[in-house]
Amino acid sequence: MPEIDSLLGELSGSVTHPLHKRLVEAYRSGQDLQALLAECNKYMQEKIDAIEGADNSGNTGIQRPTDD
Amino acid sequence: MRLKALTTQGIRGFNAQQTIEFSDALTLIDGANGTGKTSLGEALEWLLYGMTFKREKGDGINKPEYKGSYRNLHWDGQGKPFAEARVVTAEGDEHVLRRELNEDESSQSYLDGSACDDFSGLGVISEFDRPLILQHTLQDFIHMAPKKRYRALSSILGLEGLVKLRDDVGKLQGTAGYAKEKPRRAAEARTFLEKLQKEASRDEKAEHFEELLRNGGAESLSRARTALLGFAVETLGSDVGEERVSGALRAERTRQGKAILDWEKHLIADDVDKIAAAAKEGVAVAAKQARELVGQVEGPEDGPGDEASEDTVEFFKLGLKLRAGADPNACPFCGEKTLTVERVREMEQEAKRATGVGKRSALARTHAMLETGIADSLRSWMGVLPKAPGREDQSRLQSVLDGSAEAELAEFRASIESVEEQQAAVQAERARVDRAVKHLGERIQGIIPEDDCSTDVPGLLDGLPSQVAGALAVSRAYSRAYDALTPSVQRRIATQHDVQWLDFLIKAWEGWPSVEIGTHDRQVEVCLLGFRRKVTEFIKAKQIEILQTKQQEIRQWYSEMNAEEAVGFSHIDVATDELRLIAESYGEKMAAAPNLSCSHLNCVGLAVYLACATRPDAPFGFLMIDDPVQSMDEGHAQAFQKNVLRRLLRDGAQVIVLTHLPRFADQIDVVCRGEWDVHCIRLIDYSKDGPIIEEGGPRLAALVREARGNMDALNEAYRGGGVQCLRMSVERFVKDLYVRGTDMPISRRYARKSWRDLKKLLRACPSFEPSDESVLEAIHVFTSSHMHEDDSVPQSVPGSHQIRPHVSEMERLLEKYGDVLGL
Question: Which residues on B lie below 8 Å from A27 (Cβ)?
Answer without folding.
Answer: 165, 168
